[in-house]
Specification:
Helix 2 runs antiparallel to helix 3 and helix 3 packs parallel to helix 6. The strands form six sheets. The protein has a four-stranded antiparallel β-sheet with strand order 1-2-3-4, with no helix packed on it. The protein is α+β, with helices and mostly antiparallel strands and 538 residues long. It is 22% helix and 18% strand. The protein is elongated, with a radius of gyration of 29 Å.
């Protein structure tokens, strides 16, 4: 009795994989075509099924067919997306790898006159690889510019901030990210040596999300440095020696459903330091004898915690036993659905906090509401729900905030003199489909909002991307600075950096452009590929 060879088994395995792949492509392609997408996946699916049948019969036509499929797909991919590597990759990578697999001699053993077909297949694979390599080094989206080698001017003194301190995420809540210290310079930076190393001991566990990262920017006030870890352990260190002073564990309720598990930083409040907070302090209604100096810690499971900056103990007079439940009045609340990861703004009276909302999992996600809490008591002072008709309306008992409203996951910026917080927002989930978004849910998406930090009232807003389909959130803390306009007058400005590569320079008072902005209408039909059913373009 003749035993089947390993070559036959390998070919049979390939036939099965090709048939399954073809059926999946055919089914998915039909559904995509029904939705208004490309019909090409239907064609590929049918060709894969025919290829599998021919390969099962050991017909050399299978290799010729696959060579034609590979070449045709390469041409179609270039026609549809051009030479954009990230768009080409999902169209060509699996087909290319499968084509390389077909060059294994065991797959084609027994085929008559197979050499010419394998040469042609190899040629089509070389063409596809060449296109991919070309696209890597010739990004059609890349715009080359020139960075001027100018020396920075001396930083302006900031009220209430000692020169040697870094008391906020961006050194100041205005996000200037610049220290006036000059001991380290271009000449001696090469001579720096490690003074100390500190290991938090916070490691990823089996119950953590896939995206578990350490993104913290520590803050330093006097002889104390504060940092948070991935699981939001709050640790106080001696900045001179790295010696731990205390740590606070908020007992994060970790879960694999979290899209992100991280802590970008914490915020600091000192009741005795009133410099620069005169405007907000006009609205002061509370005080705290237990925690006059406190660290404000955002916790990924939807809590806001206040900790005594000197002792590391929770401030029992803040919220309930030192914490506020940010899941209150949230729609579709679940572990990790609403996830505060960035340090909040802290004024003389108010904590202003926003948070991340899970992207692209569902159209029924929590709200991206922005809220203001009393810095001493944790009492809710105001809300700004970015998807509500009245953003300042606090939900009545039994009601919730608006689901899927645009969220603000990046750090906020604060103009203490004007008592205005600048909020960078993203798009409501799902990020890449906007066919069913309402006008209300798009009104404040992908924007910078100027909000009164004491009342939550909107002063102005500027939208950086209309009807976002590419996850173009405003991804970083705005930066506040005073600049000269064309007439030479100093103007209070806010710099808004975006994922599109545009930097918008706006007047902090009214949101009008200081650097001119040109908006051009975009075509409402696509040049290549099919129109997405139900979608429009900004």
């Amino acid at each position: 009795m003749t035993q089947p060879s390993s070559h036959s088994g390998l070919r049979t395995f390939t036939v099965i994989i090709a048939m399954v792949f073809g059926l999946v492509l055919l089914a998915g392609g039909l559904w995509l075509t029904f939705l208004g997408g490309s019909f090409y996946y239907v064609v590929i699916g049918l060709l894969f099924i025919v290829f599998a049948i021919l390969l099962g019969k050991r017909s050399v036509s299978a290799i010729w067919l696959y060579a034609a499929l590979m070449l045709g797909t390469t041409i179609w991919a270039i026609w549809e997306v051009g030479t954009d590597f990230w768009a080409l990759a999902p169209r060509l990578d699996i087909l290319g790898l499968f084509g390389l697999w077909l060059l294994i001699p065991a797959i084609t053993r027994g085929m008559v006159n197979v050499a010419p077909s394998k040469i042609v297949l190899s040629s089509t694979l070389v063409i596809a690889i060449a296109v991919m390599v070309y696209s890597i080094f010739n990004d059609p989206q890349e715009i080359n510019g020139v960075i001027q080698n100018q020396q920075p001017t001396t930083a302006q003194k900031v009220d209430g901030v000692a020169e040697q301190d870094w008391p906020a995420y961006g050194r100041t809540q205005a996000g200037v990210r610049y220290s006036p210290l000059n001991q380290i310079n271009e000449q001696n930076v090469k001579d720096l040596k490690v003074a100390w190393t500190f290991r938090t001991g916070d490691l990823k566990s089996g119950n953590d999300s896939g995206e578990t990262t350490n993104q913290v920017t520590p803050i330093k006030i006097g002889n104390d440095m504060y940092m948070c870890t991935t699981h939001q352990w709050l640790i106080a260190l001696d900045p001179a020696t790295g010696k731990e002073k205390w740590r606070f564990d908020p007992k994060l309720k970790a879960d694999k459903t979290y899209q992100h598990l991280t802590c970008r930083g914490v915020s600091y409040f000192d009741a005795a330091n009133t410099d620069g907070f005169a405007t907000s302090l006009q609205n002061k209604t509370s005080s705290s004898t237990e925690c006059p100096r406190k660290i404000i810690l955002p916790v990924n499971d939807g809590r806001l915690v206040a900790v005594n900056a000197d002792t590391g103990k929770a401030c029992s007079d803040f919220g309930t036993n030192g914490q506020v439940d940010l899941q209150k009045d949230m729609p579709y609340a679940y572990p990790g659905g609403y996830n505060p990861t960035s340090p909040p703004v802290v004024t003389g009276t108010t904590i202003v906090i926003a948070g991340s909302v899970t992207d692209n999992y569902s159209s029924k996600e929590p709200s991206g509401v922005i809220r203001g809490y009393d810095v001493n008591t944790g009492k809710l002072l105001w809300v700004f729900d970015t998807g509500a008709e009245d953003p300042n309306a606090i939900p009545a008992p039994g009601q919730t905030f608006v689901h899927n409203s645009p969220n603000a996951w990046a750090p906020l910026a604060y103009d203490a003199k004007a008592d205005v917080v600048f909020v960078p927002t993203g798009v409501g989930t799902p990020d890449i489909w906007g066919g069913d978004r309402t006008a209300l849910k798009e009104r404040y998406a992908n924007s910078v909002l100027a909000i009164n930090a004491s009342t939550g009232k909107l002063i102005w807003h500027f939208q950086t991307t209309h009807h976002d389909l590419w996850d173009m959130d405003v991804p970083s803390q705005p930066t506040l600075a005073d600049v000269k306009d064309k007439s030479g007058q100093m103007v209070p400005a806010v710099y808004v950096t975006t994922k599109t590569g545009n930097v918008f320079v706006l007047d902090r008072r009214d949101g009008k452009a200081i650097v001119p902005i040109t908006e051009r209408p975009v075509p409402q039909t696509v040049k290549r590929g099919p129109q997405t059913k139900g979608e429009h373009y900004s």
